[in-house]
Design goal:
Layout: E1 7-8, E2 16-26, E3 32-36, E4 38-39, E5 56-60, E6 63-67, E7 69-75, E8 83-84, E9 98-105, E10 116-121, H1 123-147, H2 166-170, E11 171-176, E12 181-186, H3 189-194, H4 207-228, E13 232-235, E14 246-251, E15 254-259, E16 271-280, E17 286-295
Parallel strand pairs: 1-4
Antiparallel strand pairs: 2-3, 2-10, 3-9, 5-6, 5-10, 7-8, 7-9, 11-12, 12-17, 13-14, 14-15, 16-17
């Protein structure tokens, strides 16, 4: 039997839910994956694993199981056990495949198929991850604005506020945890060809010399946005795990949108503070932003 793609409620902020168990599968590492028809759990995305998986519990008939990991699985049109991570041979969202949230438990949970599971996400951990993820997007917009004078020509891609999209053009990795988001940018030949300069110009010092002022400008912008208590929402075209969701934030400068599959705050007033630390590598080829939210 081919399982239907899992319906998810985490984009709206849900941390609890009930759903029938559709399957239980052993995993290669000795753990087991429990598949339900719907879930509030956010799984690790196998293609862009920036936000860690939700943890929590799964309870069936009063027996509570710890969900120690949560993964994205895929089942082909011919059925079979779900594939995970690098073993998935098709692009995310392939319509001939079923895309599943795998609730990972440490040991064989027994025959749960057809029974109702009560699903509960660790809400405090989710809130911390959501703060880090929203902070990551705000950092991207503030950094794009602060670096806009360093583009010698239009790179052909702008962010939602109209600034050259340094964040997406230079992004190497983006990782978040319960304390911060860490974004690493490559400042190589490819970026230079697109028009970005880290060198001194008639109007600007080198990026290295400008880093303290750049950090101050970014943090001032982040503080202003937090103070504005802008509303945040996730636009959801459908309930499926693979639906292409979009983060929206109603900033004073205008509405900002970024495609994103993670979880987020509901409004920026949930933060007491948001600050970033910018670090440039000694050879000038890598810029790292560590952005720490402080929840109100």
């Amino acid at each position: 039997m081919t399982l239907p793609t899992t319906h998810v409620s985490f984009p709206a902020g849900a941390v609890t839910g009930e759903s029938p168990v559709l399957a239980v599968h052993p995993l290669a590492d000795g753990r087991y994956a429990v598949v339900t028809a719907a879930t509030p759990f956010h799984p690790l995305d196998h293609t862009w694993p920036d936000q860690p998986a939700d943890l929590g519990t799964l309870t069936v008939d009063g027996a509570e199981l710890a969900v120690v990991d949560c993964l994205t699985g895929a089942v082909g049109p011919d059925g079979g056990a779900p594939l995970v991570g690098a073993d998935i041979p098709v692009r995310r969202g392939d319509e001939e495949w079923s895309w599943l949230v795998l609730h990972v438990v440490a040991a064989d949970p027994g025959d749960l198929v057809g029974r109702t599971a009560v699903l509960a996400v660790d809400a405090e951990r989710r809130a911390a991850l959501s703060a880090s993820h929203s902070g990551c997007h705000l950092l991207a917009l503030a950094l794009n604005a602060a670096l806009a004078p360093r583009w010698r020509k239009d790179p052909g891609r702008a962010d939602a506020l109209g600034h050259p999209d340094f964040d997406s053009l230079a992004m190497a990795t983006s990782v978040m945890d319960t304390e911060a988001s860490t974004d690493t940018y490559r400042l190589g030949k490819s970026l230079k060809k697109k028009g970005f300069t880290a060198d001194a110009t008639d109007e600007l010092p080198t990026l290295a010399d400008a880093l303290p002022a750049l950090t101050e400008a970014v943090n001032a912008q982040l503080a202003a946005w937090v103070a504005a208590d802008a509303a945040v929402r996730i636009e959801v075209p459908g309930p499926e795990l693979t639906a292409r969701r979009q983060w929206h934030c109603e900033l004073p400068e205008g509405g900002a949108q970024i495609f994103c599959g993670g979880t987020h705050l509901h409004h920026l007033g949930e933060l007491a503070e948001l600050r970033t630390e910018l670090r440039l590598s000694e050879d000038g080829t890598e810029l790292v932003a560590v952005t720490r939210p402080k929840r109100a």
